[in-house]
Amino acid sequence: MRVNITVNGEARQVDDVWPGESLLYVLRERLGLPGSKNACEQGECGSCTVYMDGTPVCACLVAAGQAEGREVRTVEGLASGDTLDRVQQAFVDAGAVQCGFCTPGLVVAAHDLLTRTPQPSDPEIREALAGNLCRCTGYEKILDAVRMAARS
Amino acid sequence: MIIGKPLDRVDGPAKVTGAAKYAADQHIPGLTHAVLVTSAIARGKIIRIDTGQAARSPGVLSVITHHNGPRFAYQPPKHPWIYGQTHVPLQNDVIYHSGQIVAVVIADTLERARYAATLIQIDYAVETPEISVEANLDKAFIPERGPFNLRYEYRRGDAHGALATAPVRVSGRYRTSMQHHNPMEPTATTAVWDGDHLTLYETTQALAFTRQKTAEMLGVDQKQVRVVSPYLGGGFGAKGYVWPHTFITAAIARSLGRPVKLVLTRAQSYTMHGHRAETVQELSVGATRDGTITAFVHSAVSQTSMLNEVSWEEMDATTQLYACPNAELTRRVVRLNLGTPTPMRAPLSVGGYALESIMDELSHATGVNPLELRLRNYSTHNPENPSQPWGTGKFLRDCYELGAKLFDWPHRLPRPRSTRRDGGWIGVGMATAFHPTYVSAATVSIRMDADGKALVRSATQDIGTGTYTIVTQTVADALGVPAKSVRFELGDTNFAPSAPSIGSRTAASVGTAAHHAGSALKDKVIAIAVADHRSPLYGIPAAQVTAADGQLFHRLDPRRRETYADVLRRHGPVDSEAVWPAAPGISRSYGAVFAEVTVDDATGEVRVTRLVGAFDIGRVLNAKTARSQAIGGMIWGLGTALTEHTIVDEHLGRILTANLSGYLVPVEADVPDVDIAFVDKADPAASDIGAKGVGELASNGATAAIANAVCHATGRRVRDLPITPDKLL
Amino acid sequence: MEFLRPVSLGEALEMKAARPEAVPIAGGTDVMVELNFDHRRPAALLDLTRVAELAEWSRDDSVVTFGAALPYTRLINELGTDLPGLAIASRTVGSPQIRNRGTVGGNLGAASPAGDTHPVLLASDAVVEVASARGTRSIPASEFYLGVKRNALEPDELITSIRLPKATGPQQFAKVGTRNAMVIAVCSFAISLHPNESRAGAAIGSAAPTPRRVRQAEDFLTEVLDWESPQALPDSAKRRFGELVASAAEPIDDVRGSAAYRKHALAVLARRALGWAWDAYREGERSCA
Lengths: 152, 729, 289
Hints:
The complex is a heterotrimer of chains A (152), B (729) and C (289).
Chain A: E1 3-7, E2 10-14, H1 23-30, E3 49-52, E4 55-58, E5 71-73, H2 86-94, H3 103-116, H4 122-128, H5 139-151
Parallel strand pairs in A: 1-5
Antiparallel strand pairs in A: 1-2, 3-4, 3-5
Chain B: H1 12-16, E1 32-38, E2 44-50, H2 52-56, E3 60-64, E4 94-95, E5 101-107, H3 110-118, E6 121-126, E7 153-156, H4 159-165, E8 168-176, E9 188-194, E10 197-202, H5 207-218, E11 225-228, H6 244-256, E12 260-263, H7 269-272, E13 279-287, E14 293-304, H8 317-320, E15 326-335, H9 349-366, H10 370-376, E16 381-382, E17 385-389, H11 396-407, E18 420-421, E19 424-439, E20 442-448, E21 454-457, H12 467-479, E22 486-489, H13 506-530, E23 545-548, E24 551-554, E25 561-563, H14 564-571, E26 574-580, E27 585-600, E28 606-616, H15 623-642, E29 673-678, H16 702-714
Chain C: E1 2-4, H1 9-18, E2 23-25, H2 31-36, E3 44-47, E4 57-59, E5 63-67, H3 72-79, H4 84-91, H5 96-99, H6 104-110, H7 118-123, E6 127-132, E7 135-140, E8 145-147, E9 150-151, E10 158-165, E11 171-176, E12 187-194, E13 199-205, E14 212-213, H8 215-224, H9 235-247, H10 259-288
Parallel strand pairs in C: 1-3, 2-3
Antiparallel strand pairs in C: 4-5, 5-10, 6-7, 6-10, 8-9, 11-12, 12-13, 13-14
Helix pairs in contact in C: 3-4, 8-9, 9-10
């Protein structure tokens, strides 16, 4: 089937989509956007977190057809040109990046948190990022990064 | 000096923007997709496998079973070293464990391959699998040491005699769980053949291993195999050795004449590349009434597979950490119908948990403060070789001191089950961390171009630890140039051969080689400059010239100077290469970990509220990446202590927790306040740059510290990991 | 596989009537996992995310009705005051990303004994509204769960909305898990006080083949609670309540916990939740007086 999605501000048309496949698969394999990661396929790890119509979702749990006509924003769409978004910059500055595989999902989840709650408390940060697993495991530095981004 | 500074990760921007390409992110034209079909039974034979419907399914290019499976040029030996396991699937009808590869479907899209895989019909002759370590203890045996020289037996003095006569004796039977590495990045292989040359985009902690063993299995020369892995989404041991899915994918791609991509599902990752073995350990300690240890007797049994006999969980802490004249260590294995175990971040943490628990029990028995007890038994010399002083290889006293101060460790510990806060029992515990770290040959090459920029290359890996960054820093320091003038490329066997990222060896090995390569290049450029009459440095003895911030200058007359770029514009690019070390080496890292927990006495739920670690890792190369590794390691210890265990169905032999909702790794909300300190004293005996490993060390100590804190909080000693709520009621 | 995209409830019901084998999908938190793992491959998916009626809610003086496809996050934010027990349970579902998509309708459709909202629906006398091209039915929550992952829906029916009385007294939900977030309940418990009827509803999850009400424990509360002049509950009463709740459970041993632990933990949860709810009620009565 055909699916039309606006991805990172650009209208994209995708053909030959299998109705059972996920938005994550469409992004990674059909649209050349492998930034969102595939790590559990069951919504447990948050590595595939993207915005859909402004709401963070696990792209692995969105059927491709459900994204029809929606606006999707991925980790690739956060920076403006070479200038990193403040959350991305804070992740680099705080040392919140290790192997980097959980990072794209965490960056989107943290970006959303700060959009909704500009000055989150520590418990709010922990709760907001509870669905993003980091096995390295850099949770403490990730917490630092969100605090840092909130200040910037 | 740039070394030691908390330089931001040079790979950070690529990772936060999604630009970093991991193994499964490569775009390859004409790609086909492989899907594995795995055994539903744990022991028996395939008596019929019907692939007809699958083969006729749309888009299917090939269906592989043991009837038509690839035949290989080599049979991995019975000791699993570099090869993850001996068993090569798809060669015959025998099933050794559930989740074993029994068929592979290749199709033009992933969805079609997945669907066809569901159409394969298999009939089995089922036999009763052996699943339990406990039920097979009478069959335990001591394996051969194997090429890695694993130590299964050790004794000094008369441990049993000393134990029998010791005024204080404490014994414990400890159990640790089967665990899985669960790196966030699923294991992936993409095999692309160009004529008789193979390129593998691989999730690997060891490019060289993958190249060597894939070539061996396929019967081609190593030079025909290129392995590419610029970014790795964690490995923790799961991607250390070479497992069948890799060379099977490469063989299928060769016979199919198309590129083939295989990405393991999370569930498949539980049976395709090893796990940490379950152990049952009996440990006894004898001591005088003041807590001076006189004997250790440590006997452990761990699981191994039907075709391999191996236990990676070395327990050298028992015989090497504390001064103790008499010690005996015996490690045995039992064969089970589960896959072959493999090292998982910090193999010594398994025995270390038992040792540091019994130290706590000894502390209770003698009334000596746990910290004081450890100081009382401090070893300044190797207990296995008393003529060998630890020297600069051990600053554990500093760890105890730094950690105790950060944690505010009490001189007088309240009685167990005596402190309450918010309806829960509070307890504190501590433990020593101990782990060997290794070095092995790494080659680093550098080319500096006319613009004064250095391109550094090495066929090593950055598994998330920070190799990109610390090598950049090290080379910048050796050259005397800013870090931004150095670009480091890794993850490609086209570069100079280098060290695997296992055994906490990358930083010390590759870092030192990088230091030498940088120094050599600097010396070359200085030699060129002082011999060139066009240079302001002409005629100065080379030893009087040094470099800083991209400038070469006369030590005594710094006005005589020019830049690297000035020299190279006249002379052309300069290359250097260095190999280090000449021979593999081992050293040891130390630490002290302190924990505070709250236990809900009604539900048995444990929450860790504080964790402090102080570590002796030699010289700290990058304060930021080292800190991240240390904290990460401690959180691993927390997972081992409280949540992580792989549960196997006792009748069917299937793993019941083969996903991230069943196998519980810690989440952000579990993580307490964590504080870290480093001793930061160089150990020149470990590496020329004074660095040792940190990744594995830091995952030691926390498990026992938490378990000890739980005992302090509740008065109950749980000797069976993980400490789930039911065990506390 | 076909992907059906109705834009109205009527259209959705027609499609479901024509294709009863079509699997409804809203948040995808269950269905997509099954598809991703190839546990099932239905002939058709019926996407409910474009049916506006299913994501709306309404309320009058005494009753709240919300669409089956209303995501948890909206339920928490928009209906949390009227349905505090359901909001508490919803907050413990998965992660923010999951709550942004997951729905109570999905919880009901999957009918997993571990679903977080079930005990609250039972304790709060919720009614599940279902519809088909043939008409509509109202099924009390207590008659909805038939077995492990089995519910009272006919093949051509869709869950359209959930109807609950507005809370007239304190409500509590509690669950036990081994980490601080992202936990499938080892066991769970919900209690809703209904002071206007001088009774309380209570139910358990993850402790029997289906979520279930604990009637004996409810009857015990009817006996011991004095709604007119509420007194502090003696520990013995809370303990007895906990025992009755636990005795209604028929848990199994599984990877998340043993049957014995579940029974023990249920008694603890019940005791505590009753204490919190009753204290809140007494507090409320005092401040009103």
